[in-house]
Every structure is written in C-alpha cells, then in structure tokens.
Design goal:
The protein is mainly α and about 325 residues long. It contains 14 helices and no strands.
Length: about 325
C-alpha cells in the first residue's frame, strides 16, 4: 500500500461517521425533493435558513462535549441573545445593529467562559452548574423582554436569510453563514494547541494534566466558544422571525435538539471524539425530519417517537463502536 493510499484510508477511518451523516443528508434531500410537488431554490432557502439556529447551537454544544463537558444552558443563552437583540436592534440603523450583534456575541462568550471557569475551579459537575445557569439566563431573558416583540434591521435579516423580509431569498447566503462559523471552529479545534487540548481533556482529564495540558484554559475556551455560538443562534433566530421570543420552552427544546444533533453527528458524550462538521449535517437532518415524515403521511406524534427511537439507536451504535475500539486497543 502506497503512502497516499494509507493517508486516505486513515482519513476515511477517522472521519467515517462524519462522511456517513453527510451522505445521509444527501439521500434525505434527494428523497424529499421527490416527495413534494415542487422542490427548488425556495425550499432550499427555507431548509438552510431554518437550520441555522440549531446548527450554531449544535456546534457550540459539540465543542463543549469534546472537551469533556455538557452545557444545558445553551438554549437559554440563545433566548438571552435573541431578546437582547430584538429589544435593542429595533428601529436602529444597520451599522448600530451590527455593533450590537458583535457586542452580544462577545458578551455571551465571556458570560459562558465564566461558567466554564467556575466549573473548572469548583469541581462541580458541568450538568449541575449549567442546569442552574439555564434558569438564571431564562429569567434574565424574561426580565429584558417579558413577551414576544422587538425587531431588527431588514439588512440584518438578509445577512442570515438572503431576504430583507426573512421569507424566500437565496439559499446561498444562509449556506455561507452555516459554513463560515463551522469551518472556523473546526480548524480551531484541529489545528491549534488549545483545540487539541480540548480533545485531550475530553479523552482523559488525568492524562491531560500529566501531559502538561492547561486543562483549565481548555475548559474555559470551550465554554466561551459555546456561548458565542449560542449568541449567534439567537441572532439568527431574530433574523429569521423578525422578533424576539423569551419563552422557556423554546430554550429547553433548543438545548435538547443540540444534544440530539451532536449524538447523531458522532460526538461521543464521554468526550474527546468527533468533529463539528458532522453536527452541521445532522442539524439540517433534524430540521428536515418532520417535514419528510409529514410528506409521507406520518402524523406529528408518531414522528416524535420515531425521532427519539432514531437518536436512541444511534447512541447504541456509537456505544458499541467505542466498546469495539477499546477492545481492539
């Protein structure tokens, strides 16, 4: 076997799950295109723009889980970003709206980095701390915007949806807005010392410390990235809906869907394994799942059961693969 063949084989082995979910997405798109009477740019624009918030949230959740944590507050952070944007961007010129958007991303990244720092120094499990902060951020969101309302600039809506009205438009714009953050986080996680430290921390915190890895920094940065992606998800939601919505149920569902997306995308909940590129595909798959089942005549309740069964099945398969790897090692 030549060196080139060996590299390709190793690459396919390491990224087989990611490649598999992208092939599954392609198959589902082809199936959906043949299920409905008309499938064109309007349908593609709807799929891509509606997938944005979940994809951003899943990327943020993925990087935190890769580093050995889990963040139940990402959905409420989405709400917080959403209501701040809707309240303060309303009737503002585009330049001010962009400044507000940047401030929200930086502010929520710092906020969540503080959560990561507290977890690191206190030793309290991630799930306990982030469950508590989820209620805090949800409450703050309600204080800022007690009921749905607010708005944003038409140009800002175009930035995420390809349309100043948030309806129709080109699918190219949301597609670009999907891949820019995804590729930035991917290359950061795979090509920087801190990114590799996250994988080391998720694989074994004890081994990472013994190897001289700055585990506290890795934890804090992973939570900062998660916060920034949650903020981006909230901004995308404002752009899509044209308004803010502080309901707790929205944040709770968003958090659960982000965990489902990373599980389907091949991110091991034990940490240290997976690629954020896989969750991009599964974010779109989860958005498409119910419309596809509706198109074949399956009611919403049955679709929910099938979605849960799919996630459970994937978790079982993932667990068996990890067990096989451990036995082989």
């Amino acid at each position: 076997m030549t060196t080139t063949q060996s590299v390709w084989r190793r690459t396919l082995t390491r990224n087989g799950w990611t490649l598999g979910v992208w092939l599954l997405l392609a198959a589902l798109l082809f199936w959906y295109a043949n299920l409905i009477p008309t499938f064109g740019s309007f349908q593609m624009a709807s799929i891509t723009k509606n997938s944005l918030p979940l994809i951003y949230l899943a990327i943020g959740q993925a990087i935190i889980v890769i580093a050995g944590g889990i963040d139940l507050s990402l959905g409420p952070l989405l709400l917080l970003s959403n209501v701040i944007a809707a309240r303060f961007m309303d009737e503002q010129p585009f330049a001010i709206v962009l400044l507000i958007a940047v401030a929200i991303i930086i502010g929520i990244a710092i906020l969540n980095a503080g959560t990561g720092y507290f977890i690191s120094v206190s030793g309290v499990p991630d799930i306990v701390v982030t469950l508590a902060t989820s209620y805090i951020w949800s409450g703050v969101a309600l204080m800022i915007l007690p009921s749905p309302g607010g708005g944003t600039a038409p140009e800002f809506r175009w930035l995420f949806t390809g349309s100043t009205a948030g309806i129709g438009g080109s699918f190219v714009v949301p597609l670009v807005m999907i891949f820019i953050p995804a590729l930035l986080v991917f290359f950061f996680s795979r090509r920087t010392r801190t990114g590799l430290a996250m994988y080391a921390l998720g694989s074994s915190s004890v081994a990472a410390r013994l190897a001289g890895v700055d585990v506290q920094r890795a934890k804090v940065v992973s939570y900062a990235i998660g916060g920034a992606m949650a903020a981006l998800a909230g901004l995308a939601t404002v752009a899509i809906l044209g308004t803010g919505d502080p309901r707790f149920s929205v944040g709770a569902n968003a958090t659960l869907n982000s965990v489902a997306a990373i599980v389907l995308g091949g991110i091991a909940l034990t940490g240290g394994v997976g690629s954020v590129l896989g969750v991009v595909a599964t974010g779109v798959i989860l958005i498409m799942f119910n419309p596809i089942l509706s198109a074949v005549g399956i009611d919403a309740n049955t679709a929910q059961v099938m979605q849960g069964a799919l996630i459970a099945g994937v978790m079982v398969i993932g667990g068996l693969i990890v067990l096989q790897r451990e036995r082989s090692a």
